[in-house]
Design a protein that fits this description.
The protein is an alpha/beta fold. The chain has 2 domains: 2-41 and 275-384, Glycerate kinase, domain 1 (Rossmann fold, 3-Layer(aba) Sandwich), CATH 3.40.50.10350; 48-267, Glycerate kinase, domain 2, CATH 3.90.1510.10. The protein contains 13 helices and 13 strands. The chain has helices at 16-28, 48-56, 90-93, 111-122, 142-147, 203-207, 215-236, 252-260, 267-274, 278-281, 303-311, 350-355, 357-384; strands spanning 2-7, 35-38, 59-66, 72-79, 85-88, 127-131, 151-153, 172-174, 186-190, 263-265, 286-294, 318-325, 339-342. Strands 3-4-5-6-9-10 form a 6-stranded mixed sheet, sandwiched between helices.
């Protein structure tokens, strides 16, 4: 029996590969000779670099970049066998890099993300895949553009600094010094966010509060991004205000469209293509997927449903092992997931479940496999009768 284990991370508990290892241990307790193929998966957010590098047998590169608050930090990106690069903006400009008490989307910058892009270009990459989930920023990609040679000036001609607080001061955008290699590079942004740049469903209103913005700051940020979009339209001839996806990562989606001519694609589909999952599917008997929680929203670009849709043409059964089963989770059955099992096997607090996630997942995988083995025995017995 060949089994693919393709899970997302269980946020706060274990990475995708740690989850896969726990599931493998549980399976092996029941079917020791099973052929296990572990493919960690992500949807464009946290863990995207690891998922694609491991899944495609790529290599890591490490570099020093500017963090969201201007400090120097160690970061990484991946180089794939075909020479493409995989970058995760959260590695340089992510919310996990900012202490809770210092969260302030007026101050944070995407400059380090631009430095990661520059490092990939120095490596010779002609194709860059970017995951842009988990940002701490709301600067519209101003910082990443600055790192790549774009100069923003105020009305007096003074060069502006970094951070969303400077967006309203932008009077001119000088792209004459932008890194020319960008013109020869294909950018694919792995992102399922369809938010526009401004308005009720914009970057500031939807995501600003979780990055530290109060009600007044949300309004100020929204107005700042609107001004930014107006200047871009007037000077660069690109109308991005109502384009879906421009609100991703605090407007970084907009910056990538404007300065890199990027293409926004489904996060999970981009990852599955990059790891070439189809090469394993023809001979696979079962797929185990999973993540921290599955509910009715999981049909919108989440890992388990993406895996199930990839498996459909091959008629492979798909089981999701998850931390929690939320409202309307049954919707995922219409998208190719055959069964859902929670790893929680007794009453416990969320903290306890998170702390003991690996052990719980191993036990749930063992229970799952025993049920499958029992079903196989019943089927065999029925055939004999």
């Amino acid at each position: 029996m060949q089994i693919i284990i393709a899970t997302d991370s269980f946020k706060g508990s274990m990475s995708a590969i740690e989850a896969a290892n726990s599931i493998e241990k549980g399976i092996k307790k029941v079917v020791n000779n099973a052929i296990i193929i572990k493919i960690p998966i992500a949807d464009g957010g946290e863990g995207t670099v690891d998922a694609i590098v491991m899944g495609s047998k790529g290599a890591y590169r490490h570099t020093t970049v500017t963090g969201p608050l201007g400090e120097k930090i160690e970061s990484k990106y991946g180089i794939l066998p075909d020479g493409s690069a995989i970058i995760e903006m959260a590695e340089a400009s992510g919310i996990t890099l900012v202490p809770k008490e210092k969260l302030n989307p007026m101050e944070t910058t995407t400059y380090g993300t631009g430095e990661l892009i520059k490092a990939a270009l120095d490596e010779g990459a002609k194709r860059i895949i970017m995951g842009i989930g988990g940002s701490a920023t709301n600067d519209g990609g101003m910082g990443f553009a600055q790192a790549l040679g774009v100069v923003f000036r105020d009305q007096e001609g003074t060069v502006l600094g970094r951070g969303a607080k400077y967006l309203t001061d932008i009077h001119t955008i000088d792209v004459s010094g932008i890194d020319k290699r960008l013109e020869e590079t294909e950018f694919i942004v792995a992102c399922d966010v369809t938010n526009t740049l401004c308005g009720e469903k914009g970057a500031s209103a939807v995501y600003g509060p979780q990055k530290g913005a109060d009600e007044q700051m949300v309004k100020d940020l929204d107005n700042a991004l609107r001004h930014y979009a107006d200047v871009i339209k007037n000077q660069l001839g690109k109308d991005i205000l109502d384009t879906e996806g421009t609100g991703a990562a605090g407007g970084l989606g907009a910056g990538l469209l404007v300065f890199c001519r990027a293409t926004l694609k489904s996060g999970i589909k981009t990852v599955l293509e990059a790891v070439h999952i189809e090469q394993y599917l023809e001979k696979t008997d079962l797929i185990i997927t999973g993540e921290g929680k599955i509910d009715g929203q999981s049909i919108y670009g989440k890992v388990p449903v993406g895996i199930a849709e990839a498996a459909k043409p091959y008629h492979i059964p798909v089981i999701a092992l998850v931390g929690g089963i939320g409202e309307e989770a049954e919707k995922v059955y219409e998208y190719g997931i055959d069964s859902i099992m929670s790893l929680v096997d007794q009453p416990m607090t969320l903290e306890k479940a998170i702390d003991n996630g690996k052990e719980l997942l191993e036990r749930s995988a063992e229970r799952m496999m025993r049920m499958i083995k029992t079903g196989m025995l019943i089927q065999k017995d029925l055939k004999q009768k």
